[in-house]
Specification:
Belongs to the fungal hydrophobin family. This is Hydrophobin. It is found in: Secreted, Cell wall. Keywords: Cell wall, Disulfide bond, Secreted, Signal. With 96 residues, the chain is mainly beta. The chain is built from one helix and five strands, in the order βαββββ. It has one helix at residues 35-43, and strands at residues 22-31, 54-61, 72-76, 87-89, 92-93. The protein is globular. The relative contact order is 0.31.
Length: 96
């Protein structure tokens, strides 16, 4: 008897990098090539391979005027809802 082995691979494309338009308050901002960014991205199913952009970790939208952010204020690509506010891509520092 022969047994068959099927291997399935799942390809999760890298998120597209677009001009940042979403003001965010992030606990930290790290390089997309860092171990921390890779670990968080893996938790939400993102593949950051080939990207070299700043990544915000533990981010939440800034929705009111004024800066009561206890972390780093940045503008990022709009994070996808399924990322659960744990990561944002292409984050650039801003002053509010």
């Amino acid at each position: 008897m022969f047994s068959k082995l099927f291997v399935a691979s799942v390809f999760v494309p890298s998120p597209p990098v677009t001009p940042p338009t979403s003001n965010q308050c992030c606990a930290s901002v790290v390089s997309s090539t860092s171990a921390a960014a890779s670990a968080v991205a893996a938790l939400v199913g993102l593949d950051l391979t080939g990207l070299d952009v700043p990544v915000g970790l533990s981010c939440s939208p800034i929705t009111v005027v004024g800066n009561n952010c206890g972390g780093t204020t940045v503008t990022c690509d709009s994070p996808n809802a399924e990322w659960g506010n744990v990561i944002a891509i292409n984050c650039l520092p801003i002053t509010l």
